[in-house]
Amino acid sequence: MKLSGEWIEANHVQTVLHMLEAGGHEALLVGGCVRNAALGQPVSDIDIATDARPERVIELADAAGLKPVPTGIEHGTVTVVAEHIPHEITTFRRDVETHGRHATVAFSDDRAEDAARRDFTMNALYARSDGTVLDPLGTGLEDLAARHVRFVGDAEDRIQEDYLRILRFFRFTAWYGAPERGMDPEGLAACAVNSAGIETLSRERVGAEIKKLLSAPDPAPAVAAMAASGVLNRVLPGADPRALAPFVHLESGGAEPMRRLAALGGEDVAARLRLSKAEAKHLARIREALEAGVSLEEAGYRFGVTVAADAALVLAASLGAPLAPAWEAEIARGAAQVFPIKPADLMPALQGAALGAELRKLEDRWVASGFALTREELLG
User: Fold this and answer.
1) How many CB atoms lie within 10 A of CB 252?
2) Could you tell me the pTM of the whole model?
3) In this structure, which CATH number among 3.40.630.30, 3.30.460.10, 3.40.50.1010, 3.40.50.300 belongs to the domain 1-145?
């Protein structure tokens, strides 16, 4: 198999690969860029594997007038910047000892050893500068063609090397697995048996994986499998995946992890996933809108179009009830309303807390009237 496309023919990619080759070393594209290109999907990050040691990579980059950055030199990784684009170059490695969250590695000259320490067979594919794909394990291309997300070697061994691979298994299946195939049974069983290991991971790592999973076109089958295996409860206690499939069917405008999280529910989601302040606020507003139990029009007024729409979708998915044909227009009408009373209209007769209370009282009357009461009627 040979890869082609603008990404592999790009001058910056070929410059870095030829830099290593001219120095007498192997230079192989590896991982996500090879996988995605073989699947006809967009390529973003450029990862390169080589038998050159990190110090040699730096020496070659300097000699070629490129910028080497020792981003993970203790693990064999140097980022070489060419045409302002980073290329992550990592020396072939083999595991010496693993600890569940990180591994002690030794450098290697053998790409087969490097492939054997990767997570999934479809990620253990390499490509030369001319696009020729290499499959050191002998199963990567077959699994990729079948959209079969499978651990390299023994699934439990791979998971115990890094428990984040449990979440990556579900995420990769959601993104790259064949829906009709379902989850790899050996991998799913190994994830269930080792699910307690998730609790050793940082919340940032867990949160990043869950957001990537929920950004898949349809994460519902993978999330349902997470629930059945006990993994979902380890990550988000109290989460219920039943509304996610109908929610994905109802939503439009692309995948948005926060509203999908709202459909899942769960306890202390923002803290458990270490969400950003903006993400946590959006999630909290969706839940606030759900708990308010108000009309679509009122929800649009009180929460804005985006939050009100997200809440409406979550509620419809949870109840299994269809949305009215003009539901979006109702929300938009509410969002466009402007309360006709200003604080100055009640001053100086009212000040401070009394002013605020009266404004809320009048606003509630106005909303209850369907936004029909005029300023004069409210003040009369």
Assistant:
1) 7
2) 0.89
3) 3.30.460.10
